[in-house]
Write a structure and sequence with these properties.
Length: 75
């Protein structure tokens, strides 16, 4: 959805994400944003139930942290 609105330049330059601010007062954009977020929460909940046997409420607030795993090579 972000790429639809501002193009794909933000994928390599996160400063371009600021362009999304101009849609903050657009009711259709906000509705769709919430819809996409809720669908992603449903997908995550289904994944956790299937692969981790953990059931979560999709109406709760999700705080997800992702850490990049980096392989360190020492000589």
């Amino acid at each position: 959805m972000v790429t639809e609105k501002i193009g794909d330049g933000w994928l390599k330059n996160l400063d371009e994400m600021r362009q999304i601010e101009k849609f903050v007062d657009d009711p259709e954009f906000c509705r769709r944003w919430r819809e996409i977020k809720q669908n992603n929460k449903r997908n995550l909940a289904a994944y956790l139930l299937k692969y981790r046997n953990v059931q979560i409420d999709v109406n709760s607030l999700f705080d997800v942290q992702v850490k990049r795993i980096h392989e360190y090579k020492r000589q």
